[in-house]
């Protein structure tokens, strides 16, 4: 039997889904809770095979409840069952440690199958959730030009922003004037700017100096 704890503050949802699950030959609902705090305590005490978790609940939401369960019991398998598909719910829930993500619009039979699939080690995600995750993975991180500067080049840029000449920079950093000129050339190239003035403008614009 796959032992399940159901955490949801909607009594009718719990009654309907639990009744269906309890009628299954391989699933047993061993506990129910109507808030995240009590649910987390129950899950950690009963150690069910699967935890069905709502997200928006009183006292403690499902994301925090999931986080606390996983922190104390990393092996827990948690299926989010919610009405929400917005990014501020989906990603935090998965990052907190949820294994699967279902919608309450799913049929009870689909939730039962998700329980079986998750129990056997395979996550189940609503198609919309999968689409969101794929889109996020395809997003290339934006790398700003100044991220390419070395530590020394950043020092030189900050001194340029202070209005110092190449010679003054060389004296302050105890390096050769020729080396400073090389750093300045590299800075202009990496920042894709034409001159020192544009480099200073870039530095202020991106909060490198204030």
From TrEMBL:
This is DNA-binding response regulator. The keyword Transcription applies. Residues 142-207 form the HTH luxR-type domain. GO terms for biological process: phosphorelay signal transduction system; regulation of DNA-templated transcription. It holds the Pfam family GerE. Keywords: DNA-binding, Phosphoprotein, Transcription, Transcription regulation. Its main location: cytoplasm. Transmembrane segments: none annotated. One of its GO terms (molecular function) is DNA binding. Signal peptide: none annotated. It is found in: Cytoplasm. It comes from the Bacteria. Residues 3-119 form the Response regulatory domain. SUPFAM superfamilies: C-terminal effector domain of the bipartite response regulators (SSF46894), CheY-like (SSF52172). InterPro entries: CheY-like_superfamily (IPR011006), NreC/VraR/RcsB-like_REC (IPR058245), Sig_transdc_resp-reg_C-effctor (IPR016032), Sig_transdc_resp-reg_receiver (IPR001789), Tscrpt_reg_LuxR_C (IPR000792), WalR-like (IPR039420). The lineage of its organism: Bacteria, Bacillati, Bacillota, Bacilli, Bacillales. One of its GO terms (cellular component) is cytoplasm. The modification 4-aspartylphosphate is found at residue 54. The keyword Transmembrane does not apply.
């Amino acid at each position: 039997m796959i032992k399940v704890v159901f955490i949801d503050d909607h009594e009718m949802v719990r009654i309907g889904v639990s009744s269906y699950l309890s009628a299954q030959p391989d699933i047993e609902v061993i506990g129910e809770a109507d808030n995240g705090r009590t649910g987390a305590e129950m899950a950690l005490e009963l150690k069910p095979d699967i935890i069905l978790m709502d997200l928006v609940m009183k006292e403690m939401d499902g994301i925090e409840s999931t986080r606390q369960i996983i922190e104390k019991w990393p092996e827990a398998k948690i299926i989010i069952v919610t009405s929400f598909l917005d990014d501020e719910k989906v990603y935090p829930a998965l990052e907190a440690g949820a294994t699967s993500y279902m919608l309450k619009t799913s049929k009870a039979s689909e939730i039962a199958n998700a329980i079986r699939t998750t129990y056997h080690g395979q996550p189940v995600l609503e198609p919309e959730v999968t689409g969101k995750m794929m889109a996020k993975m395809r997003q290339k991180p934006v790398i700003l030009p100044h991220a390419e500067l070395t530590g020394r080049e950043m020092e030189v840029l900050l001194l340029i922003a202070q209005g110092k000449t190449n010679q003054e920079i060389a004296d302050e950093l105890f390096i050769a004037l020729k080396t400073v000129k090389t750093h300045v050339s590299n800075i202009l190239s990496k920042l894709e700017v034409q001159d020192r003035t544009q480099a200073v403008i870039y530095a202020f614009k991106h909060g490198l100096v204030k």
